[in-house]
Amino acid sequence: MKRFSLRGVRGDLPLLACLALLTALLTAVTAAAPAFIDQLAGRAFADRLVQAQDTAPGVTYSVRLEVAPENAVDPGRRLAEAMTDVGDELESFSWASPQLPGELRTDSARFVLPGVDTVTEAGPARLSLMHATDAPRKGGYVEGRPPRAKAGTPEIAVSAATRDGLKLRVGQRLELGRGGQQGIQATAVVVGVFATGGDARLWRQEPLLVAPLKSAGSAESGGSAESAGSAGSAESGGSAGSAESGGSAGSAERPHQAMALTAPGSILELQAQAGLRLSVQWGMRLHLNEAEARQSAGADGRRELQRALVETGEVAPEQFCDMAMFGGVQCRLGMNPSSGLEFTSRLPVALDEFGRQWGQGQAVVAFGFATLAVVALAAAVVTALLALRRRLDVHRLQRARGASAFGLAVARAGHTLPGLLLGLAAGLAAASRVGEGTATGRGVLAAFGCWLLLPLVTFFAVRDRALLRERTSAIRGRRAVAETALLLLAAAGVWALRSRGTSAEAGPDPLLAAVPALLGLATVVVLVRCYPLPVRLLARVAARRRGTVALIGLLRAAKEAPTRALALLVLVVTLAGAVFGGLVAGTLAEGRVEGARWRVGADAAYLGAGFNPAAAQELARAKGVEHSARVGELRISPRNSSSGAPYGSTSLLGVDTEALRTAAPDSAAAHATAALPASDGAVPVLARGGPRVGERLEAELGGRKLQLKVTGVLSDAAAGDRALGPLHTAELPERLLLTDLRALRGVAEDQFEQSALLLYGDGIRADRLRSLVPRTAPDVSPGELLILDEELTRVADDDLVGALTRAHTACTALAVVLALLALVLELLLSAPARGRTAARLRTMGLGDRQTAVLHLLQLLPMVLAAVVGGTALGLALPSLLGPALDLGEFTGGPGDPGLHADVLLTVVLGAGCGLLVVGAVGVETWLGRRRGLGAVLRVGRGDE
Fold this sequence. Notes:
This protein is of the alpha+beta class. The chain contains 32 helices and 23 strands. The chain is about 55% helix and about 15% strand.
């Protein structure tokens, strides 16, 4: 008997090996999922830090520098040494929080004197003079040498492009101070020409160092008077004086804009002549290694990093000069009196954005892992059932001879124990390769769960109740109760997610990972109950026709629907996961592009245009800019003029209607404001939320009352016009008013909360525009320049979305492979029943073609139901989950991003299921030719 048992085990070796392989896979997936997600987060976080610090340093320290005393000895050398010493202290972490991870690396220390006029052979020029610690050394010069620290005459060095554009030469003298900074009278000498090749940050951040720029007033600039006029209206809110500004600028010869390198002493000498206060800046970048990035990517790590940045912003100024806190100029940098050290960082904004996006990104990855785990578990169940079927007759004979059901289950557990150990070891070994943080306990539980499948199905198959084949109404009742409980559990899971969202702050959310499985099971329950109904209707139609193949095939397909639950589960979950992944990927790809267009509002946008109208005019005249239009925002608290009822904080947006209609003829906001009627001295506005049409409002603004009249309702299309994007975030304000800027001409520019100049033109170049962002005067905010091409490139290079997409795609691909395996095993499991039916019909003269049709009709309804159910579930998942999966965090556009399904992927998966069924039908038909009735039926067998 023992020898017979061993022979039976040897016959089951392929299935037991398959079960061990699935055990290893489930163990690896379960154990490695947390570590893999942490690793994914760490890489995406490190990439986001690099991206956030690409165009500008992540941390900036600065001091305002006063004129050095007259009796100061060699202040230039002392200043250069002090700039280097401060940078070293900042980089050595002696002035940083001990909890700050990674290392702060000095990007540069820079000192700039802007706006010194001179005359060159190419015409007038306006030079900004810079000292930078990351300036090219002697080896980077193609002609001459770097400026010396001690020189009786200020020495400057220019790029090769500046030398050619301004027609300069080494040894040439330039008279500085003609019409520029008042009080400056000096002669500078050109001592060197440096190369600007490569991708150094200095060239990207200071494009005027690379090449000069001819302002748009000349013929070669390509700027339009119309553009200049729109920018010139910055101070008046759209007044008629803008045309005059544009015309005068066009008639005068405007200077070249350029930048040159010089020594600190030369800048200090010119600063003393003009009596200016200048600024010294140290740019620092935070660098994290892989382990530090993984540790800081989580919610706790990001909070610690932000806390450390705040502490660093407090520690460094105290170390630099503890007297700065008492006010006044009490500090020194070199020989120059200075203010205290000021700290600014753009990293907290990047950390908050990453945190919001990664919280949603975990949902996408969790869905991928959940899909893979459910399909692998279903494949393991099918494998166990197939192994049971091969031994079921033996087990029934053993039970008849007195063996217990529990003993047979224990014996099967012993048979699969080596597979458990091998699968567990292989799975944990594979999980350990992911890195630290593997969940070994979860992996062990998954392995033991997979190991117990075969003993459990064996026990339930050979217990007394199963052998007696008790079929009562109680069985149907228990099935109905179980199905109802499953539907309620799935609904409860969806409700819980929609109510509380995801618990991303605590890591991967178990509920979020369980909901796809619950929804897949609920979908299978609905399909098993529903799809036999139309199949039976088709069978009735087939009964009226000649031939019995269609009738028999459809009736068996309807009867066997409950036995197809596992196959349906595998197909539904796999298809739902794949369709959902394609939906998310398509939505993110399209939505992030639309979000970038929304943030910029045009081909380029200059934020803060109202605070620097001179820079706005320069940008509007820049080469490549064809049109420009201004938009602005006022924050007001209006109330009803009659009743005095307040409406709370409201955003009043204004657009330059005529300019915007010219630049963007399809602008809904411009068309809406163009239709505004006159309103008897009050500002006509369109309202969204709050005030009603016909209502008069008043608001305090700058010491006077602003009268408003609501003349219409602001449509969603106008409120979501991309031209308004630079003024506010993706979430539209609850109360919004829109009007024409010409109606706000009496409002002072400094009362606008935000203002932006929108720039349109196919020939816009980022380097030209960035070179015009001003250094025209000290202590003037340069504003922020957004360029659409750069934003689109940043979106395309963001590794967070790419990592999520790759992870979900890998999980889905592996799930598809396992689904194919599970489906093949399920077809093998149900093949004998189909073979017996076909064998009986063959004895009655059924041909090969009719046999193939019979097999196809038995399988096709199940596949069609799975394709429909899985696709519907995948498309419905974003709506079912609601706030638990907010893709708007990735896109940044107004409102919810439109869903973009991957139609090709859906069609390919559905066609793949169909081809698999066709292949199975072909194989079964071919095998059926080689066996007769006796090969599949035995006397006294009661399976059917």
